[in-house]
Amino acid sequence: MTQTVRVLLVDDHAVVRQGLRLFLGLDPDIEVVGEANNGEEALAEAQRLAPEVVVMDLMMPVMDGITATRQLRKLLPDTEIIALTSTLEEHKVNGAIEAGAISYMLKDASSDTLADAIHAAARGEVRLHPEAARRLVRDFRSGEMRESLTPKETVVLQLLARGHSNKDIARSQDVSEATVKTHVSRLLSKLGLDSRTQAALYALKHGIASLDGVEM
Q: According to the 3-state scheme, what is the secondary structure of 94-110?
């Protein structure tokens, strides 16, 4: 049985939130548990409701979405954040990913595309707008490897870059999820990275995985 994903919507335009709630309501496995008008409200509501996924606008008054994403990742590290905005400006794309967003989507995305991104985020999988992915690959600066990855860590990194969850990787490699988590933790440490999304971008930038293998 598919587990229902609890979602918090954050946008300073009530009409946008209403539209998102209507579209997402078509998916029986997504439950919109709350809404917030800005970043500060998002922090308060997320701590109160503990959603699996937060859909976060970036350009809002009081507290912008990038600042809210960074603070929310510290407060609720198990809650994933999808940046949903109307811009592909490089500093917004880079800022959202560096702050900890697992996915970057545009507001003109179809309801099916957004629903897929929400389910993917709940599984710890990356979804990126194609142009955002290309810009991140071009601009992402992670430096050289501090240590060499083991063959198993390299395979895990390739699968991670293709959007696979820990559960999927564990199944394909015939190991436990705990072992996969250890591999992910070690490769992030070796590469000096902070998140799965950054690791996926590193793999793309250094030719370890290709854009064709990444779910968009």
A: HHHHHHCCCEEEECCCC
DSSP-assigned states of every residue in 127-161: EE-HHHHHHHHHH----S-SSPPPHHHHHHHHHHH
Task: List the strands of the sheet with 5-10, edge to edge.
Answer: 30-36, 5-10, 53-56, 80-85, 103-106, 127-128
Long-range (24+ apart) CB contacts under 8 A made by 107-113 are 107/16, 109/84, 111/23, 111/24, 111/26, 111/27
Bridge partners (DSSP) listed for residue 7: 32, 53
Q: With 0.70 as the threshold, say if the pTM is over it.
A: no
Residue type, 125: E
Structural domains of the chain, ranges and CATH numbers in brackets? 5-138 (3.40.50.2300), 142-213 (1.10.10.10)
Whole-number Å distance between alpha carbons of 100 and 157: 18
| Three-state secondary structure call for residue 166 | helix
Quick one: which of 61, 65, 125 has its CA closest to 89?
65
- Please report, as a single letter, which amino acid is at residue 196: R
> DSSP assignment, residue 28?
T
Tokens of 141: 């600066």
For residue range 78-130, list pLDDT tens digits in order: 999 999 998 888 778 888 888 899 999 999 888 899 999 999 999 988 888 88
Name the DSSP class of 3.
P
**Please, what is the Cα angle at 169 between 211 and 190, to 5 degrees?**
75
